[in-house]
Write the structure tokens for this entry.
Amino acid sequence: MLSVKGLRANVGENEILKGLDLEVGPGEIHAIMGPNGSGKSTFSHVLSGREGYEVTAGSVTFEGRNLLELEPEERAHLGVFLAFQYPVELPGVNNTYFLKAALNSIRKARGESELDAVSFLRLIKEKLKILHLDDSLLKRAVNAGFSGGEKKRNEIFQMALLEPKLAILDETDSGLDIDALRVVADGVNALRSPERSMIVVTHYQRLLDYIEPDRVHVLAKGRIIRSGGKELALELEEKGYGWVLEQGQAA
Amino acid sequence: MNGAAPTGFETWLAARADGEVGAGLDWLEVQRRNALQQVRDQGVPGTKQEAWRYTSVKRLLEQGFARVEDAVTALQIDDIEELLIPDLDSHRVVMVNGRYTPSLSLLGDLPKGVRVTGLRALLASDPDALRERLNGVAGESQPLFAALNTAGLDDGLVILMDRGAILERPIELIHLSVGMDEPRVAQPRHVVSLADGAQATLIERYVSLGESLYCTNSMLELSLGRDAVLKHDRIQVESPNAFHITGLYLSQDAGSRYVGVNIGLGAAWARTDLVTRFSGEHAECDLQGLYLAGDRQLMDYHIDVDHAVPACSSRETFKGILYGKGRAVFDGRVVVAKDAQKTDAAMSNKNLMLSENAEVDTKPQLEINADDVKCSHGTTVGQIEPEKLFYLRSRGISAPLARRMLCLGFAEEIIDALYSDALREAVSEEVGRRLETAPLT
């Protein structure tokens, strides 16, 4: 589904990704762990098409398409979704209006009919129910004045609505207390499906207590230096990144 | 009345074949003569004058606008159907080229103590009702365009409300401009007077049929008695070739409250002067504005708030969206008199620039002569933040739509202050439509 080969990317003069390889199959959940500065967020941003990154080598193929040549919205149309580490506040932009514009933009790009107000609200209610959310956030401006937990829940809610094929969760656990983390993880788990792959980017193992990955990768200095099953996360938790970094250098 | 006005404005005041309205009223003749003298004395404003520093009247003068002569009588209600806002339940007054047009108006039943009538008609039937009110707020000494309006006084709307009278439904004043064979100038003059405790909503809309070239020089005198409340929405969507001038003069007695929302979207050249003065304590004045300016468009706002007495509050919140080669001016001035302690004044002007070629001159000024006051002012000129744009695009929303959503989000605060949902929707749609084709360079 997603194939990343030898990806190199710069921010300004600095090379952040230095030959990253990753293969994600349909329905798989991959965790990417790594210390600060390892390139985790850069990788998420390059996948979603954020400006400010220069890809110098390698390829990213998503369902046979070269993702790197597409605009951010085109990637979204194909089914790529980024849950932001820091969801952006949009004062004055109503959340319901935003969600409808997003969903209908994607439907339109796929040649599907746009949803009218009634069908849209029905769909929204259904998704809220799955995620056990109340509808108070619909009336507010997108993320404006939201607490950290509300922002992350709003990200997962968007994901539920837009039904991506590939969801990238960029440090979704950052800034959340344990209760908020559980709510968000429950939401993510409710959206697991054989057609939906996920890349869970995180610094800490604790998120993976709630979202169980199929594969765990350790990213350091712009490369994946080690991959394994979910037990790798536990080992990292126990021994720290120092251990795997040393091993990586030894190898 | 022809002859000696300075170059360019003679045609504005050319004598009418059927004579001047209210001819024979001595007090009115004196006011007219006085105004004409002021027009002559002031001459053509130049950019050396502070009030005209950023705006040239050259383009306006070049058009050689002729005074509107005859009333337009051919229009039927069907002709203006598309200009009406469905679901806006109002007492409707339509003025065509500056002339009150009863056949298109729908006043309906007015509550007791409320008088709504044309200026021309009132000057004929009960001129004394206007004697103290005409120029009662604006005063004898008037800037050029106000003086021109007074000198060329012809018709307008008069709203007189008795003590404690309350209008449940808004009065909607539709200024309709229809192109004539040659470019014309209309100078409507409105008088709104709310006695103590009266409450009303006035919605003014400046619209046109077609894209013709004309000029509107509109002047309003509003006076609010003690504890009176006026909500005043002004929506200017003149023809893209039009010239628009508004001089709004407001006087507020103790405890009164005025909320004015100024939406400026149309016209090639638009100048708005909002002048307000407090005459009693604990009055509140809330002036808000949203303007869009694109290619060949100028939006010029001048605000003058005079805190002459203590304990009043004023808010000036103006937002602009500029694109293409659009230009805007915001010149806001708040003066707090020496004795006006406990004044609370806040002025803000924020501008969103969608193009590098757009230009805004913003100049908020506070002149504080009292020491126990709360006053602030702030101004920003910025672009759409890339993170916001990316956030929307990452959700599948195209860059142009995302930009439009962010602009509307920026404008929302002002649009939200409009009278009703029907009005908010109409304005949002109009803003969206303009942004859809807005050039980004």
